[in-house]
TrEMBL record:
Keywords: Apoplast, Disulfide bond, Manganese, Metal-binding, Secreted, Signal
Stated family: Belongs to the germin family.
Cystines in this chain: 24-39
Domain of life: Eukaryota
Molecular function as annotated in GO: manganese ion binding
The protein, known as: Germin-like protein
Chain sites annotated for binding Mn(2+): 101, 103, 108, 147
Major localisation: secreted
Signal peptide region: 1-18
Subcellular location: Secreted, Extracellular space, Apoplast
InterPro entries in UniProt: Cupin_1, Germin, Germin_Mn-BS, RmlC-like_jellyroll, RmlC_Cupin_sf
Organism: Capsicum annuum
Length: 209
């Protein structure tokens, strides 16, 4: 009987190990779903799927926000697919800002590696958590909450952010309000801004109506 039990246990362990899927490298040729990309065939997976060098170079900060975000999400780094993590690089020129935004699908950790970055988030109770971070400091932004980052150094500040999802999602508040065809009167009614200000912001960000 004991030999039979040992045999059955060994069989269960072996079948359990055989059923484990170590990874699901994204098949970028297939459509993405809310749960991520489908898996590329293991026979086509190489070590390069698990290596990404895109965060080594500074982003282009010549934009209206004087900042750049270089993502390392599943779409850029297929090996992350399904693993529940991702990263990005932030480059902020003097006065650069990553405007108020949310990540519906992930919490975020910011690590400052150069300069100083003032960062903060607003809780669902409208409490503000604000701090100027120096090199080596980290700050966490809970999932779904509005947050921002802004450079206060006299030179470009750099940070790296890490997310609890391979596709954290992104919605920038200013763009959601002023970079589309949402009617000006409706924006005014829901934000208490005057129409002249709304039209000016729409003009800057490319919105209409």
């Amino acid at each position: 009987m004991s030999k039979l039990i040992i045999f059955l246990l060994a069989t269960l362990i072996l079948s359990s190990n055989a059923a484990v899927q170590d990874f699901c490298v994204a098949d970028l040729k297939a459509p993405e779903s809310p749960s991520g990309y489908s898996c590329k065939s293991v026979t086509n997976v190489t070590v390069d799927d698990f290596v990404f060098s895109g965060l080594s170079a500074a982003g282009n900060t010549a934009s209206i926000i004087k900042a750049a975000v270089t993502p390392a999400f599943a779409a850029q780094f297929p090996g992350l697919n399904g693993l529940g993590l991702s990263a990005a690089r932030l480059d902020l020129a003097p006065g650069g800002v990553i405007p108020f935004h949310t990540h519906p699908g992930a919490s975020e950790v910011l690590l400052v590696t150069q300069g100083s970055i003032t960062a903060g988030f607003v809780s669902s109770a409208n409490s503000v958590y604000l701090k100027t971070l120096k090199k080596g400091d980290i700050m966490i932004f809970p999932q779904g909450l509005l947050h921002f980052q802004m450079s206060h150094a006299g030179y470009t500040s750099v940070g790296f952010v890490f997310f609890s999802s391979s596709n954290p999602g992104l919605q920038i508040t200013d763009f959601a309000l002023f970079a589309n065809d949402l009617p000006t009167k409706l924006v005014g009614a829901t934000t208490f801004l005057d129409e002249a200000t709304i039209k000016k912001l729409k003009g800057v960000l490319g919105g209409t109506n």
